[in-house]
């Protein structure tokens, strides 16, 4: 058939007596039948079949998808779920997501969104905030929680309450101010011996959670210190303090000497080469060096 025959430019295939033949092309696109996916265009005086360039206008996508060009080819791709960013609402309304769908709904205004002129205040009437004239005094005005009424000239107004702090509270001696549940309160001061200065001849002791000065009695003769410590008088008070040993306090055995290891004295071997001059042999024997060691033989 003509599908099995490739004709040169300027010719086309025709079936003649059941045989495909290439014949010169004459005429216009009306005389040329193009295969699917192509269309006829005049190339000079010659009609030719050329591929059809499809666009999204030529493609019908199924529900839930939309057409996008992939290079030069239109393709159906899933739709992206719309959000409130894709929707412009008219004045007096705002966008809210209804499930997965953005919708414009009326804005529910309150007195917080309405600024009233001097001499008027906002009141809700049938779910709508309105400015109405103010008459009367603070007795006629009910303020919301966290605010109080003050007269602004001849007009009562609701103003925010100022939370009290410890700066607003004077506590009696022996107490101090602390904030408890957003309120300042006076609580007893818990003193320690660090807060009390005792006179000479006395010292501080805690008695029933209270620091007190008590007389100091005794000297180092009255105090027995544990091993490793000794008694020193701290002003008029005998106290046990750690003993700091030195090499003068340590007696090392023969062949060793004392060295300080940090703050601790230790006995270490003496590295000295002895000779026969250092050795006294008994009668009837004499000294000989055995390697580096003198011996009596």
UniProtKB/TrEMBL annotation:
- Tell whether Glycoprotein is among the UniProt keywords: yes
- What is the originating organism of this protein? Passerina amoena (Lazuli bunting)
Xref: InterPro entries: Fol_N, TB_dom_sf
Tell me the keywords, alphabetical order.
Disulfide bond, Glycoprotein, Repeat, Signal
Q: What is the lineage of its organism?
A: Eukaryota, Metazoa, Chordata, Craniata, Vertebrata
Tell whether Signal is among the UniProt keywords.
Answer: yes
All copies of domain Follistatin-like, residue ranges? 1-23, 28-50, 55-77, 83-105, 110-132, 137-159, 165-187, 192-214, 219-241, 246-268, 275-297
Q: Which domain of life is it from?
A: Eukaryota
Q: What is this protein called?
A: DP87 protein
Q: Residue span of the signal peptide, if any? A: none
